[in-house]
Amino acid sequence: MPECFGTGYWLFIFEMGRKKIFWLSMVILLVFPGTFLRAGVRDFIISIRNVTQTASNRLEFDLYIVDTDPDQDFQYATSQIGLLLNSGIYEGGDIDVAIDNRDSKILPQFTARPRISKIPVIARGKTYIELDGANVSPFGNGMTIEKVEPGTLMTRFIITSSVDFTINTTPDIEFTGSNM
After folding, report:
1. How many domains is the chain partitioned into structurally?
2. Based on the domain organization, do 73 and 162 belong to the same domain?
């Protein structure tokens, strides 16, 4: 440090540098992410459609995915589906869940067998149905999802109960965003 400048001078320069760095970092953090990041933009919607009771103990419905981003194509790689079902519809019985990919346009198709578990604590009165995804497509090689409603058919769920469904109950199927 040159002796012609006192300690106070260098301290002043150091403090000015810290203030500039602070304000520069604030500008970067507050201005630039809004320019480049798209947080909160929903690129797709997965929906339950065509819910039908085909027998007194059988319920079927389709799962669709639609691309909602008009600016870019959504390439599907894989997904894991978690559903909650009202356990009251099969009071006193058990259910079996199967999938039917016959009309599905999704690639890679679901191949796993759905798993079923009752969740007494987390979601009282609900049954958790989980379907694991297939092998992941390499980056950039995923299937392009349709942009027009209803979208691309992912799979058809078939729920069969060991007893007739309870009268005046509804399945109340809903998605869950995490593993139970």
Report:
1. 2
2. yes
132 within 8 A of 83, measured Cβ to Cβ: no
Q: Give residue 16's domain range.
A: 1-37
Cα→Cα distances 103→62, 157, 170, Å = 10, 12, 26
Query: Are 118 and 86 contained in the same domain?
Result: yes
Q: State pLDDT tens for residues 67-90.
A: 998 888 888 888 888 899 999 999
User: What is the model's pTM?
Assistant: 0.72
Q: Is the peptide bond before 70 cis (omega within 30 degrees of 0)?
A: no
- One domain, residues 101 and 123: yes
